[in-house]
Amino acid sequence: MDSLEAKDIINHLIKQKKAALVFTPNAEIVVQAHADKEFLEILRSAQLILPDGSSLLWAAKALKKPLKARVTGIDLMQLLLPEAEKKGWTVFFLGAKQEILEKAVCNTLRNYPSLKLAGYHHGYFKNDIIPLQVINQVKPDLLFVGMGAPKQERWLYQYKNQLECGVAMVVGGSFDILAGKTKRAPFWMQKRGLEWLYRYLQEPARIKRSLLLPKFVGLVLAERKRLRKKEGLF
Ligand code: UDP
């Protein structure tokens, strides 16, 4: 599935108004889910799971279940915002620091002046119920949640039965990008699967997370070995 196909599925899910969850895991998230059964269940509860990372494409190919394309949260969000403007969907932003979020809202409305942005709330709340109440007051068609993993997935899973929205999609650090605080990698890096490298250079504090990548490779290779054994290849 590519971003355009994902957009079509979301179009369909929005009409059902059942708070469908859309998650976009990368290699780090897969490693976390492997070590934490509860988090794995949370990921599995999504109506749509999209591979946000070239390492997942590599893993899928290695396990003989190739995926069509990488679908990042920010790419899909940038397809959904004009769609929301065109279709009149109401949208809510949850996540990021207040001043960053305000900039993201401003820039988004500059780009999509007719967008029905029903509300927004920062992602550093002490009481989980506050953003839930604000969201349910406006019942958005499309809720974007950017609080970083696993916080965003856990929050959505915990409140999914109380949330009144069409689709709730996680977007990680996308509000920071919309605000201009962080930049996306140049297109040539994105195409060559090097966006992770650009992010580490831009935010060196993230380097700690890269320690999970060898673990991811190890998990994939072990799974490939297990599958080959099952098939009697060796
Ligand atoms: N964030 C948040 N609440 C928190 C922790 C983080 O809203 O308690 C925001 C943070 O300000 C940033 C985003 O979540 O905008 C994290 O982005 P990151 O790039 O780390 O996302 P990931 O790579 O984990 O998807």
Helix/strand layout:
Elements: H1 3-16, E1 20-23, H2 27-35, H3 37-44, E2 48-49, H4 54-62, H5 73-87, E3 90-95, H6 98-111, E4 116-121, H7 129-138, E5 142-146, H8 151-159, E6 167-170, H9 174-179, H10 187-191, H11 195-202, H12 207-210, H13 212-230
Parallel strand pairs: 1-2, 1-6, 3-4, 3-5, 5-6
The structure holds uridine-5'-diphosphate.
Descriptive report:
The chain has a domain at 17-25 and 72-182: 3-Layer(aba) Sandwich (Rossmann fold). The chain contains 13 helices and six strands. The protein has helices at residues 3-16, 27-35, 37-44, 54-62, 73-87, 98-111, 129-138, 151-159, 174-179, 187-191, 195-202, 207-210, 212-230; strands spanning 20-23, 48-49, 90-95, 116-121, 142-146, 167-170. A six-stranded parallel sheet has the order 2-1-6-5-3-4, with helices on both faces. β3 (90-95), α6 and β4 (116-121) form a beta-alpha-beta unit. The longest helix has 19 residues, at 212-230. Bound molecules: uridine-5'-diphosphate.
